[in-house]
Description:
This protein has a 7-stranded antiparallel β-sheet, with no helix packed on it. The chain has a 4-stranded antiparallel β-sheet with strand order 7-8-12-11, with no helix packed on it. The chain has a 3-stranded antiparallel β-sheet with strand order 4-5-6, with no helix packed on it. It is built from 1 helix and 14 strands. The protein is globular, with a radius of gyration of 18 Å. It has one helix at 101-104; strands at 2-5, 10-16, 26-30, 38-44, 51-56, 67-72, 81-86, 90-95, 110-115, 139-140, 145-148, 154-158, 165-175, 181-190. By secondary structure, the chain is mostly beta strands. Strand 11 and strand 12 (154-158) form a beta hairpin. The chain folds into 2 domains: 1-11 and 33-76, no CATH class; 78-190, Immunoglobulin-like (Sandwich), CATH 2.60.40.
Amino acid sequence: MLHLSYGRCTMMLVLRDGSSNPPVQGAVVPLPGRFASGVCRGRFHPRDQHLYLTGLRGWQTAAVRDGCFQRVRLQSEFPCPVRYSTASNTFSITFSEPINRELAEDVESYSAEMWNYKWSSTYGSPDFSVTTPERVGRDPVKITAAKLSDEGKTIVLTFPALREAMQFAVTFNIETADGEPVQSTLYATINQLR
């Protein structure tokens, strides 16, 4: 599933938590590239299978043009997360390509943080601490271990204090087994630790 960001003029890959237990949880990973306007309509053409998008520039968007009509097509495969799951103190990310083991198992290849929003009648919310709800800001989350699976695609990160959070972000700076950079952030909502 793809998500279009009008405000950021980008597109994100939407992932569903791999656990079959309710509640359903999800995450997004930004895809490379930017659109000229705030895209808000996308359709796959039935003949060429390319994605066509239209957009505009209104309020609160990073658009550089008043409008756009753009095409997205897959020119080559690129390594990215394709699945994730949460547990009581672990967060697993499965990639489309095998990952370099040395970088994958180095906790310095990752950083994590979490935060909540406040529901109110105003538009938007600052980021609020999960551990100290009245404090504005994000909480860094310590990663104590990183383990790559035998097939080389799934990384299991261990946290001493993983908690439920509206926003949980894991940033990774790793490489595929072939040396291609894999750098991005996965943004998840943790409604329930399983």
